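Hi,

Apologies if this is the wrong queue. I'm a grad student, and the batch job for Putative WD domain-containing protein from Colletotrichum sublineola produced an output file that my downstream script rejects. I'm not sure whether the problem is my script or the file. Here is the sequence I used:
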Amino acid sequence: MTKRPSQNPFNSGALVPTEDILVGDGQGGILHYMVEWPSLWEISRDTWLGKVTPIAKIAVHTSQICALVWSPNGQQFVSGSNDNTACYFEMNRMMDDRHEKRDSAMVRKSRRSMERHGSFERDTLHTEHSGVGRHRRESVEMSFDAIPTSETIEVGVTGSITRATRTPMQGLRLFTHGTEIHCWRHDAAIKAIAFCPWQEGLIATGGGLGDKCIHFFHAGTSTPLATILVGAQVTSLIWSTTKREIAATFGYSHGYAQSEHPYRIVVFSWPSCRQISAVAWPGGPRALYAIPYPKGPANAPKGSRTVREGTIVVASSDETLKFHEVWRDQPKMAIGGAVGILGSDILESLAGIDKEGDVIR
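Support response: The file is valid. Your script probably expects a header line. Output copied below for reference.
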């Protein structure tokens, strides 16, 4: 929630709470919208129904956007794409005045370039990857549409009728390569992304069929922390809010045919990456996506740990929703160990982390 000047012409300039929405498209573009919801008095007095305003276009990917995930504090987000990259952004760096002036100049330059050379520009993105026993530098040539569209659709609702009007995109800011703080290369598209809710800066991503891994990164330094080879397309990732564990759901494993991988939900511990539990689905349907279901089973006792976060809802390729209780209501015993949350004493000291057990209090 961010306070901005109201778009209501009868309340112009007043600071009001607004929400931010990110929308990805099939060409790799990300549109950043500001949403101002109307108050009841604005509807009754001014007949003003709120406004959705585009404020920025982010052009760092070259293919379809598969995932967009905000951090718990709403100040960072990660995008995943079919171009096999996951990009990490920080809103405060994007929105400062210096960046705004630079991007305005880039938009003007891009428009002149389009008049001379057409509507596409090319740029080169350099990414560094480090891992056990290897260090390589890759150069990936990327093309993108450098110009936002000249119009956008502003949508409002009157009663049950949706109305749409076209408004000019003047003032829309363009962010291109270099806006992202980090760019993490995978071997397939990235659909699954999850910020850890109890450790700031810990991010998990899941690769598609060509990758078949869960990757863990430290956002502050871009350091790769661990990789779990799961042998299947990772379709969603959900951190536990009370335990140092993460649940993953899986799709295809051996190709775009009947899947041979029997497991569709697996829970891993962090940072040991040990498998805690696994759920196999008979008949081979794929897990397409999952979300946490905070209330848990209907017969769960009120106030129990299960009621808070034990269940996830999984959309399946057999056109059903499946409810699985992946975290029981009994907490694990706290276990100390030499391996810390981020796998490095240096990273943990930078983050102010003390080594504790498996239960998050």
